[in-house]
Each structure stands twice: as C-alpha cells, then as structure tokens.
Known about the structure:
Elements: H1 11-16, H2 18-27, H3 31-44, E1 52-55, H4 62-71, H5 75-84, H6 90-101, H7 103-113, H8 117-135, H9 141-147, H10 153-160, H11 170-182, H12 186-201, E2 204-207, H13 218-226, E3 231-234, H14 237-246, H15 250-262, H16 266-272, H17 278-287, H18 308-335, E4 350-351, E5 356-359, E6 362-365, H19 384-398, H20 401-413, E7 414-415, E8 417-420, E9 423-426, E10 441-443, E11 446-448, H21 450-466, H22 476-483, H23 497-502, H24 516-519, H25 523-532, E12 541-544, E13 558-559, E14 564-566, H26 576-579, E15 584-589, E16 592-598, H27 604-610, E17 616-623, H28 634-654
Parallel strand pairs: 1-2, 2-3, 3-7, 9-12, 12-14
Antiparallel strand pairs: 1-15, 4-5, 5-6, 8-9, 10-11, 13-14, 15-16, 16-17
Helix pairs in contact: 2-28, 3-28, 5-6, 5-8, 6-7, 8-11, 8-12, 14-15, 14-20, 14-22, 15-18, 17-18, 21-22
Amino acid sequence: MEGCNMNQFNVKELIAEQDYLELLSRRFPTISKAATEVINLKSILNLPKGTEHFLTDLHGEYEAFNHVMNNGSGVVKRRIIDTLGKFLSQNEINDLASLIYYPEEKLQLVKDQEENLSDWYEISIYRLIQVCRDASSKYTRSKVRKALPVDFAYIIEELLHEDEYRFNKKDYYNQIIQTIVELDRADDFIIAISAVIKRLTVDHLHIIGDVYDRGPGPHIIMDTLINHHSADIQWGNHDILWMGAAAGDRSCISNVLRISLRYANMDILEEGYGINLFPLATFAMNTYQGDNCQKFKPKLSADDIVPDADIDLLAKMHKAISIIQFKLEHETVLNHPEYEMQDRLLLDKINYDDYTITIGSDVYKLNLRTFPTIDPKEPWKLTAEEKSVIDKLRYSFLKSEKLQKHIRFMFAKGSIYLRYNNNLLFHASIPMNPDGTFKKIKLKGLEKTGKELLDQMEQMAREAYFGREKKNNSTDFLWYLWCHQDSPLFGKDKMATLERYLVDDKKPHKENYTPYYLLVNEEKTAKMILEEFGLDPETGHIINGHVPVKVGKGENPIKANGKLLVIDGGFAKAYQKETGIAGYTLIYNSYGLLLASHEPFESVEKAVNDGIDIRSTVRVVEKVVDRKKISDTDIGSNLKKQIYYLEMLLSAFHKGVIKEKI
Length: 662
C-alpha cells in the first residue's frame, strides 16, 4: 500500500467499497478534511519509532518494578545528562532525577531543607521543562498533547514549544514559570510534568509473564499496569494460576494459598484482595494442634519480622492447604484421563504403615508421619471439614472485586503469545519434539501444533474464566496450563511439588525442561518458530522469560545467534543469588535493541534522600543501519491501511461516487 494515491482507483473498485466509504465519509466529510488527515498520517510515518521496554518475571517485587517504571530503566537519567549534563554537577543530576522519579516525596524533603524555596521551584521547573522537551521531541504535538494532564495542558504545551532564548518571548516564558510559583501551583506542576516525562520516555511496555507469587506486592504491580498508558502482558504460569484461582478452580486456589503461605505473603491475600483466611486458620489450628509442622515453616527473608506465634500458625495453615492441594490435584488427574498425567497420581503410592512412597520404580522415605485427614483407602478424598474450608475460600476468591478487576485486565491486555513489531513474545516455551518438529497435542479431540495450538489453548483459557459460572464449564484447563508438561507457560516434564514437600531425597525433585529449551538455542530452530508465527526470520526475535539467566556463572541472555533473548535476570529476590543481578530490561528504540542489567534496588527512601538509583549496565544487542521509523512498525502498517482507504475516499469524492457532506 506504500506509495498509493487516489488516482489508482477506478469507479468499479470505488463502487465495490461504497458502503465502507460512506461510513468513512461521516468522519471525514469533505475533500479538505480527508486530505488533511492523509498529510498528517504520512508525516507520522516518518517519525522515529517509539521506545518499547520489555520486563519479565516480576514476581511481586513492586518496589523494584515501580522504580524501574519511574527511572525508565535508566533512560530518564540519560535524558537529564544529554540535556543538562554540561551545566549540572553529578549531585544536581541525581537530585533532579529523584525529583522526577518520586516528586511528592522529594518535594516534602526539599520543603524541610530548602531556605529559598521560590528560587528552587523556578530553577527546578526550568530544568524539568528542558528534560520534558527532549522526551517529547520525537512525537507529534497531538500525541504529546494527549499525554498532558488537563490542569496544565495549555501551560506545558506553551513552555515545550516556546524558545526561552527567543528575544520576543523571553519575558513571556519566564513569567509563566514565576506565576506558577507565585500562585502556589509549583508542587502540582512539578508532579504533573514529572509524570509526562516518564510517560514520554517509554512509549509501550511489555510484561513477558509472571507478575504473581513470591514477592509481597503483585497486586500493587497490577494497579500500576492498569494505570499505564500502553502495556501488554504475556501470561506466565504463575499468572495463569491466579487467573484459575479467580475463576474459582479449587486446585489453583490451593496452589495460590500454598505459595503465599510458603513465603509468608499474607498482605496480598488479606489486604490486597480481601481473602478471608479465618476458616483455613481455624481448621489448621484444630487439625494440626499437636504438630509443629516444621517442614512447613515459611521462608522468610532477612527483612521479614514475624512473631513466633504467627510463624507457628502460618506453618499449620501451610500444611493444611498443601494436603488439600495434593488431594485436589490427584482428583483432577483422575477426572481428566485425556491430560495423560497418571504419573502424577502419588497419594495412592504412599505406604501409610511404613511411611514410604513409590515414585516410578524407586521407593523413598517420607519426611512426615502425621496425616490426620488422609484415608489410606481413598487418600485423595477431602474430609467434610476440608471441603468446607476450600468451598469458603473459593467463594472469597470469586467475590473479591479487586482480584476480579485485575484478572479481567490480565485477560483484556494479555495473551499466551504476542507478535509485535516483528518480535515474538511468550513467557516460556513452545511444545516440541526432540527431533525439532512441533509436538502434536490433542485438545477437544483435535490434534494441533505450533501457533494453531497456542491459539486453541488461549481460547480455552478465556472460555474457562468467562464461563466460570456455567454448570458444565470446567476451569481445570487453567490448572493444566499451570503445570502440564505440554503447557507453553510451564515447559517442564512435571511439577514436583509433592516430592519436594514429602521426600528429602533430591532425586525425585528433578524437573527436566522440555525439548524447546535445548532446540531453541539453535538459530535454525528459532527461525523456524518465527516463520510458524508469520514473522520475518531474518529480522525477528523471540523474547522469553521464565528461566533465570545465570549471569554470575557466565551465561549469556542472547542466544541462537541473536534470534532468542531470554530476559529473566532475577527481579525476584529469591533468584538473585542464582542470576547474580536483579533483573533485565530489554529496550527497543529507533536505533536498535539494548539490554539493561540492573543491580538490586535499595529503597524509595534512599532514592529520595540520597539520590541513590538502581545501577544499570547497558549493552547493545543489535544496532540498525537505518534508524527505525513508525513506517517500519505495526502501527505504521495500520496507518498505511488508513491512508489507503482515505485516498480511496478522496478518489470517490473526485469521481462522484461519494458526495461531500457540507
């Protein structure tokens, strides 16, 4: 469609599209308005592409995530240096950066310390305008205008597009800033323009899965994402687990609770989502009264302060929900022989007389001796009390308004995979055979592979959630996506939760990665996958998370000769010893691909008081010869379609097929 014009259309073609053109003419009723829009859109195609940021495996680490959002993975400070670096000291650069990151907190600190506040306001506003002008330089005025807060839209637009050194406008420019301060609007202005800078720094945000579990604040991250101007999410297995819990799936609910209790993350359950844990706590205290539940003590970080009495209760609750989970999962496997997960039927492989378990051909000693709720004849059957507990918990999950809001957002903005600007984004893997071919998986009686398989899985996941109130609907498929070896969100041969809890011998703990992880390191396999999803294998990339990159041991996140980028660098504190860093941000701007590796985040307080930022090391992954323009992006493709039909409308006006609506 590039290079098309209104003269290429004949009358027959125009008449064939007449109904659509009539509708289009309601929005562009005259030749003048249609032509103006064509001029505008063709101009936009030649602007630099917007900056995309890719993050993955956040695992509830909301403070680090919010800081990376505020500092644009280091891009904001680089803008300050590029714009004002010749005029400011390093301390002044740090202070201005922390003002942009945390304006409300920084303003409070400045008011307590600054003697001449009016001068500080005027200088800071002037500097913020310079940084904002740089951040907005590659966008149209219209796009910048849409990013401006209503209260200050006119003022910020005037300041951005006026030259303070122009002789005729110098006093006008300075007077605007002075008046903002005189009218006590400086705080509000600084907060507003800081938000604009951050918004314009990152045009689009991709989260490659696993917002949930382990860390304390995934619900806070979800609030941030909901308020973000442009974001998408590729579901991770921990996300789908919470999606299943929100759908009321009992196996998913028990897993969610077990993981939260394992890491003593009660805030997300009680304060975040209002889940009533009293029935579980009461049941656990009564059932495991004489049991110290040593194997179920929560994993606490050095910063966690939890009284011994609370640890004892959490351990009992942890054991109670774990046993309930093992029972529910066993029954789910029995109910779904088509899942072919019979090797996960382990409760009936326990000898409750000598406390051993048979796994495969091996027999292992159990590390537990007390199973007061298990009937050896039917070990997967819930007791009446356990059933009552899980039913009450299910009701609480289904009725949590905030949880349902977050999960609906996950469905609205999320997917199993995404094709975006010739990159393929998915959290974990693609089901494959050892010989390098796509694995055939039977779903609803039909065998599917590759892209078609993932499309079917996504449709079934959506159907499971949105049909959760229907009697004949099964939410079990969401649990399947959490832990099945053929789930593209998981990618291992099993989830050995029961073995890890009940057997000290580490041999049965081993979870083997599926063939994808070995095969995709080969460039030809990565290219084959890109082709399967309709992308150019020569210029496209696969972007994954899920598997922490062991940077400290020399592992490279760039694989398959640059075709595969694995960007799980350890946002979750639990993985930072393994990775040696504290997360990655992949940055895709008009000049190419950059990978920023982050050191651990200390605290908001240190960022505000001492100007301490996350240290990020940036490396170039791929540099383009010709700077990428909007015309090279998916948005550009859509704009070209709009131009095509607008030029068709112009032709229809000129040839009398459509009348102008004057």
